[in-house]
Design brief:
Blueprint (H helix, E strand, L loop, with lengths): L13 H11 L4 E3 L6 H5 L7 H6 L3 H9 L13 H11 L7 H14 L10 H11 L7 H7 L2 E5 L9 H7 L7 E3 L5 H4 L6 H12 L6 H17 L4 E5 L13 H9 L6 H22 L2 E6 L1 E2 L4 H7 L7 E2 L5 H12 L6 E6 L5 H10 L9 E3 L9 H14 L19 H19 L7 H20 L4
Parallel strand pairs: 1-2, 2-3, 4-5, 5-8, 8-9
Antiparallel strand pairs: 6-7
Helix pairs in contact: 1-19, 1-20, 4-5, 11-12, 12-14, 13-14, 17-18, 18-19, 19-20
Amino acid sequence: MKPFMNEDFLLQSETAKTLYHDYAAKMPIIDYHCHINPQEIAENRQFENITQVWLGGDHYKWRLIRANGADENEVTGSADDRVKFQRFAEALPRAIGNPLYHWTHLELKRYFGCDLPINADTAEEIWNLCNEKLKTPALSVRGIIEQSNVRAIATTDDPADSLIWHQKIKDDPTCKVTVVPAFRPDKAVNLEKPGFAEYIATLGKAADVSIQKIDDLYAALEKRIAFFDEMGCRASDHGLDYCVCRPDPENKADAIFQKALKGEKLTVEEVEIYKTALLGFFGRQYHKHGWVMQIHYNALRNNNTRMFERLGPDTGYDAIASYNCTAELMQFLNSLEVTGELPKMVLYSLNPNDNAALDAIAGTFQSPEIPGKIQHGSAWWFNDTLKGMEEQLRLSASIGVIGNFIGMLTDSRSFLSYTRHEYFRRLVCNIIGGWVENGEYPADMAYLGQMVQDISYNNTARFFGFDK
């Protein structure tokens, strides 16, 4: 029996151990997609207790605690932080096979030097140990980032955001990490959703443009893209229900936009025409600025109406959708490719049944611009598991060129989530090591070591331009 989470955790061969310990482990981290708050970096927040840093805003953990029967007041409500931590400690041991069990114990080991398994009986000791260490500079927000060897972070930001906290970080010579915004214009895209007209007014104020027609919208967004670019933005992110490509030969997009501003009911066809036009505009802008366009789709969001009305979005009530929109995604990429305006892209579907299709799409639109110009992104959300990541990596390797993969991201709201990069790197080294040990690839350790370092860091730095 192997000991729990020792130095060779997940590494099942000597080749895997060498690749991880000698090559992958020492590489820096670029967290190119996350949801952390830049204000907390600017102010170098010091957390008061482990509940704040571990459970605050983490809907992965909230789902787990709820599934163990906890009252919502002890998950996201007004219950004492110690009570919330206890509920988490009671739930986690039951989650064998869930990546949260591994992630949480890696975080406990790396940041707090604690090897105790978390359970109801150890909760008090862990609570006290962690809270004492959280008082130290090493576990301030910047302390966590620095000891995690993080070189760059891209947050997720609305086009109307002032980016004031990014500016404060930029102006602070004591902040050692590069922190840049990422452009997330979902509210401008989703004209069928409540609050669209109000949001367009907010966007207009931010851009100092009176938005009355779609050309005004384009002008406002172009100004905001230029502003984000000045602030160091390297990427956008689009959260789509499903991928669309409905061309607009009759130029209906402006009339559709004005209907939406008036609150008039729209057909599915009208919504798709508008979204196609806007996404095409974004793609051309990103190509001009050299940005990466990320597309996340096939998430079925906010399914529990009662809890959505109580807590709002991103609180753990989402699921996997099954839209079949592979052809539309292919057509959208092709519409940009034919004019020479296809930007670098990272494609993510929450439905694992789309994995092979995304790998095939990526291979259809590569170019000499950069190796792996179109990427199938790291296993996302419900797929971000040991099995899910392994299956995606093996499939991507069998269909594409895994040596050009841009690797892991946290997609997290927690500053302790950087151990997910360690988890991913161990898994990559184990898979590659297994191929070598099985005689499927030469044991050229220098070349293999360079490959895992590229997947861990170098490819990401080149792809997003952090190597310049």
